[in-house]
Amino acid sequence: DFYMEFDGADDYIDTSATPAQLGLPATTVSGGSFSISLWYNYGTISNGPPIIQSTTNYAWNDGFAIRQEIALGNDRLRFWVGAQATHVATGNLNASQWYHVVAVFTGGATHTLEIYIDNVLVSTASFTTSRNIHNPTPISMAWAPDGYGYFYDGMLDEVGIFDYALTASDVDEIYNATDFGTDKCADLSSMTTPPVAWYRMGD
After folding, report:
1. Handedness of CA 177, 178, 184, 185 (dihedral sign)
2. Whose CB among 6, 76, 103, 203 lies 3.0–4.6 Å from 11's, allowing a Cys bridge?
3. Interatomic CA distance for residues 123 and 115, integer angstroms
């Protein structure tokens, strides 16, 4: 299996696709849902570098992101939608180790965020504030094109964006169909409802 490695200095991916173009919900309360599945292996960690994001401003109060941070003594990932304050986070993660990360947003008047690590739901939270997800900034990976200049140091593989909420069964299917020891990767296109975007990262 191939993967994409980012040097933490100037490597990144601009997908050219905005949240609206991929059919993601306009706001956190408009009723739509979306999910992101990816494989993640970081070299060094610092506060800020997004793994994947779309947002227009320094305050991170629109769009969405999965980003790295150092918080509460943990090297971890934060998933937020609409604003960084509206988030869930993982526990401590180790460098130079592959993790399967799935972030799920289920929209509505009360909307829910979930994050899975290696087929385990590690955090979930619900919110009620209406915030914008649609914004004109294309979805990017491994950097923050919003003025901070953060770049990600590490590897990414098999990034899929879905315009619906993946279930625990879906997460299990993707996780167990992937085996880095035999270069076997889940075929996301064979899922009952395939992703709206699938970035193979070199395959």
Report:
1. positive
2. 6
3. 6
